[in-house]
Design goal:
The complex is a heterodimer of chains A (about 140) and B (about 325).
Chain A lengths: L6 E5 L8 H12 L3 E4 L6 H11 L3 E6 L4 H14 L6 E6 L6 H7 L3 E3 L5 H11 L2 H5 L4
Parallel strand pairs in A: 1-2, 1-3, 3-4, 4-5
Chain B lengths: L3 H5 L3 H12 L3 H10 L7 E7 L5 H13 L7 E7 L8 E3 L14 E7 L11 H10 L4 E5 L10 H4 L2 E6 L6 H7 L7 E4 L7 H14 L16 E3 L8 H18 L1 H29 L4 H10 L5 H15 L1
Parallel strand pairs in B: 1-5, 1-6, 2-4, 2-5, 6-7, 7-8
Helix pairs in contact in B: 2-3, 2-5, 4-9, 11-12
Classes of the chains: A alpha/beta (about 140), B alpha/beta (about 325).
């Protein structure tokens, strides 16, 4: 039996064209031994939910710099739920005002990471989000 | 949980889960695959290989759009393999970036795979995932390899049809191709025909192919000669012709009896590899603690060559039985 891996989808929903942050995070997660599916810029919520389903990921990491997080995130969460992907955890990074954090967390976002968060902290949060049991059972 | 009924009913979430179980080589996954196996064997497995940066993913993106736009299109699955980091074991799987046009088509399923240390251009379990997709009703399965040059030819054993992709400006890549993956090509493509130098690459490849035709089973009397095509995933040039060539190769395989020959070669390769792995695993497990380590130490101390030590291990085990 092979060692199961944490699988992560890193996606940039919306229209902002800066993916340097997303790439840095993808690289850090890879270096922590995770398999990171990187989908590129300007993904719609539908594209993100579909990719998460086909790739059977544990975590979806969203990078949003445009300020549209309160519109995009609920749509993505709703789609994931509709498709039976409740177990997928959603993490959010980018420029997120502090006052929006409680709202996002209430919606079900598992972690919000603003500018200046260290990659180490992000990697730790991603690692902790997936129970060893869940990996061991390999989603069976 | 038995995933077989939902997978057969077209439940994509169940299919995705099953692919994970197979990728992790779990007993549950193997059991489900075994139940599904009698339903496999219909799909056309098409390998897409070539050096990194030749545009394999973009080409698949265009090709699948072309095939899906035809009358009564097959369902199409894509297995896209990218390398794992040899140090962390993690991977960045980026093939979907080039396949965004396929998003939203319910007849297309894309799955990214890390090769997890496997060296032949595929992952160990790629063929199992292809079999599951086959049983789930996908009529064509594209298997895109890790960017490959010379030695990564596992795809030849895993696919019915191998498309080797080259592009202009790859420089010595043609030289590499000459000795390497060009020999396994059923179809040769020069992609990026919109870039300068495409014609030169085409001419050079044609010359190479004339010297040593890429006829995969030529020693077995196959009379298929790999066509050489010029494509552009950007403009769409040559894509319908490529789709035709792939369909044409399938018809050739079926009419010539080569289909069965390749299926047998594939099964031989898979069963043989598993047998070797499992036997070695079981053998080592049955050895007394420390014996294997002691054998390694003898080699490290240059007291015996590896081949001799292996013989001694096997003889020792035989004597103990």
């Amino acid at each position: 039996m092979a060692q199961p891996k944490i699988r992560v989808l890193i996606a940039k929903p919306g229209l902002d064209g800066h993916d340097r942050g997303a790439k840095v995070i993808a690289r850090a997660l890879r270096d922590a031994g995770m398999e990171v599916i990187y989908t590129g810029l300007r993904q719609t919520p539908e594209m993100i939910a579909e990719a998460a389903l086909q790739e059977d990921v544990h975590i979806v990491g969203l990078s949003i710099l445009s300020g549209a997080h309160l519109t995009l995130v609920p749509r993505i969460l709703r789609l994931l739920k509709q498709q039976g992907q409740e177990r997928v955890r959603v993490m959010l990074g980018g420029i997120i005002p502090d006052e929006d954090r409680p709202k996002l967390e209430a919606m079900g976002v598992a972690g919000v990471f603003g500018p200046g968060t260290s990659t180490t902290a992000i990697v730790e949060a991603f690692s902790r989000a997936v129970e060893p049991q869940e990996l061991k059972a390999a989603e069976g | 949980m038995n995933l077989v009924p939902p997978v057969l009913a077209g439940d994509r979430l169940a299919l995705a889960r099953l692919l994970s179980l197979l990728e992790n080589e779990t007993p549950e996954g193997l059991q489900d695959l075994s139940a599904l196996y009698p339903r496999s064997g219909q799909a056309h497995r098409v390998g897409i290989t070539g050096a990194p940066g030749t545009g394999k993913s973009a080409l698949v993106n265009r090709l699948v759009q072309e095939l899906r736009a035809r009358a009564d299109p097959p369902q199409i699955a894509i297995l896209a393999v990218d390398p794992s980091s040899p140090f962390s074991g993690g991977a960045i799987l980026g093939d979907r970036i080039r396949m965004r046009d396929l998003s939203g088509d319910p007849g297309v399923f894309i799955r990214s795979m890390a090769n997890r240390g496997s060296l032949g251009g595929l992952a160990r379990t790629s063929s199992d995932l292809a079999a599951a997709l086959d049983a789930a009703g996908f009529g064509i399965i594209f298997i895109e390899t890790v960017g490959s040059g010379q030695a990564e030819v596992d795809i030849a054993g895993a696919a019915h049809t191998v498309v080797v992709v080259d592009a202009p400006g790859m420089g010595d890549a043609i030289q590499a191709l000459k000795a390497g993956i060009l020999e396994i090509a059923d179809i040769v493509v020069v992609n990026k025909s919109d870039l300068p130098g495409a014609k030169t690459t085409l001419t050079a490849l044609r010359a190479t192919l004339e010297l040593a035709p890429a006829v995969r089973d030529k020693d077995k009397g196959s009379d298929w000669t790999a066509p050489l095509l010029l494509t552009s995933a950007t403009s769409g040039e040559g894509i319908p012709e490529l789709a035709e060539a792939i369909g044409g190769h399938r018809r050739f395989l079926e009419q010539s009896g080569e289909w069965e020959v390749r299926e047998r070669a594939r099964v031989d390769q898979e069963v043989g590899r598993l047998l070797r792995e499992r036997l070695a695993e079981r053998f080592l497990k049955a050895q007394p603690d420390g014996l294997y380590e002691a054998a390694l130490q003898k080699v490290l101390a240059r007291e015996a060559a590896p081949g001799v030590i292996v013989e001694q291990l096997i003889e020792g085990a035989d004597a103990a039985n």
